[in-house]
């Protein structure tokens, strides 16, 4: 794979990235084994980690050196305040994260057993009532180079933002997760689609587990109007596809202890590389390097590496 050197901040202005998406408090409960129906067991520990795909991707971009603003929604509770504070600590703009007095902040209850098997319940809460004001959205898009979104917030908000972004010259990155069927009109609004193998499979209705299949899935999206596609394949790595063709990039061989936020970390490093003038292949390389660090640490946002840490990984 090619070596890359991104322009330093002094050579190029810092990319401005707007993230529209979900904010969850992850409650991670460790158990020796999951309880059966009607059974009560004693847990080993509980820990609270700021998470949600939107928040994770915002932190992923900020830690790679971008200037990031977030559009989201939280409830009037301690989790909401903590999530906003965690973003603010990263220098992420939180002016467009209003509080919904009627619903709780989104929560993910994650049960992890001694075999490292996860069982997760997500309660969307305030994420489910995100309906951004079109005029606020328009002004935020005007000030941004790239818009990053996922599907943990209402689809109408995602579609409105993607269409407006295209009109205002802001590049659109979509991570279609969790997967759901999307209207055909959305594909031409997307510059960069980043998705894992199961999401690619759900959308194309074709089996995706090997790199060749991921490349074919990439072509499916290109044919419908997406400009570039990256399919992540877990421990295998990732496949990048654009009009010039497809390329497979193996993952770095590391010992994974927790893959939470691996895809979000990958996406952050990819987007900031692209937004800084890097090529798609350079972006994927940075994504793999960042994700290789993420999987070696427990938790969502705590495991997302900084740009300095990513640059210390092998190329
Ligand atoms: P998601 O978290 O969205 O399901 P993946 O599981 O495909 O996404 O992981 C995203 C990226 O994280 C992969 O492309 C790879 O770079 C990295 N990754 C995931 N699991 C491992 C692993 N076991 N070893 C090394 N890298 C990994």
Q: Would you mind describing this structure in some detail?
A:
This protein is of the alpha/beta class and 315 residues long. It has 9 helices and 15 strands. The protein has helices spanning 53-63, 78-89, 134-142, 155-167, 197-204, 211-223, 262-275, 280-294, 307-311; strands at 16-20, 24-30, 45-51, 67-71, 74-75, 93-96, 99-100, 106-112, 118-123, 146-149, 171-174, 192-196, 228-232, 237-242, 245-250. Strands 6-4-1-10-11-12-13-14-15 form a 9-stranded mixed β-sheet, with helices on both faces. The longest helix has 15 residues, at 280-294. Adenosine-5'-diphosphate binds next to strand 14, helix 7 and helix 8.
Write the layout of secondary structure elements.
Layout (H helix, E strand, L loop, with lengths): L15 E5 L3 E7 L14 E7 L1 H11 L3 E5 L2 E2 L2 H12 L3 E4 L2 E2 L5 E7 L5 E6 L10 H9 L3 E4 L5 H13 L3 E4 L17 E5 H8 L6 H13 L4 E5 L4 E6 L2 E6 L11 H14 L4 H15 L12 H5 L4
Parallel strand pairs: 1-4, 1-10, 2-8, 4-6, 5-7, 10-11, 11-12, 12-13
Antiparallel strand pairs: 2-3, 8-9, 13-14, 14-15
Helix pairs in contact: 1-7, 3-4, 5-6, 7-8
Bound molecules: adenosine-5'-diphosphate.
């Amino acid at each position: 794979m090619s070596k890359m050197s991104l322009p330093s901040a002094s050579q190029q202005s810092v990319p401005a990235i707007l993230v529209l998406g979900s904010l969850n408090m992850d409650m991670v409960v460790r158990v020796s084994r999951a309880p059966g129906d009607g059974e009560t067991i004693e847990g080993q520990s509980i820990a609270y980690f700021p998470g949600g795909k939107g928040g994770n991707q915002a932190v992923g971009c900020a830690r790679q050196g971008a200037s990031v603003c977030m559009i989201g929604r939280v409830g009037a509770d301690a989790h909401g305040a903590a999530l906003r504070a965690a973003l603010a600590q990263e220098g992420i703009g939180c002016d467009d994260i209003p509080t919904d007095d009627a619903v709780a902040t989104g929560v993910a209850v994650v049960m992890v057993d001694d075999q490292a098997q996860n069982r997760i319940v997500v309660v969307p809460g305030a994420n489910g009532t995100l309906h951004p004001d079109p005029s606020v959205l328009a002004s935020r898009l005007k000030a941004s180079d790239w818009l990053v979104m996922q599907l943990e917030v209402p689809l109408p908000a995602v579609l409105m933002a993607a269409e407006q972004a295209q009109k205002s010259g802001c590049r659109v990155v979509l991570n279609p997760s969790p997967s759901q069927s999307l209207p055909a009109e959305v594909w031409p609004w997307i510059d960069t689609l980043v998705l894992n193998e199961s999401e690619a499979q759900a959308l194309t209705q074709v089996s995706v587990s090997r790199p060749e299949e991921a490349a074919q899935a990439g072509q499916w999206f290109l044919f419908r109007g997406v400009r570039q596609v990256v399919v992540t394949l877990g421990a295998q790595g990732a496949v990048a596809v654009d009009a010039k063709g497809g390329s497979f990039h193996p993952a770095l061989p590391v010992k994974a202890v927790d893959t939470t936020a691996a895809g979000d970390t990958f996406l952050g490093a990819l987007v900031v590389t692209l937004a800084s003038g890097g090529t798609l292949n350079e972006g994927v390389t940075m994504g793999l390097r960042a994700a290789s660090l993420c999987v070696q640490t427990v938790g969502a946002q705590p495991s997302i590496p900084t740009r300095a840490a990513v640059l210390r990984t092998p190329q």
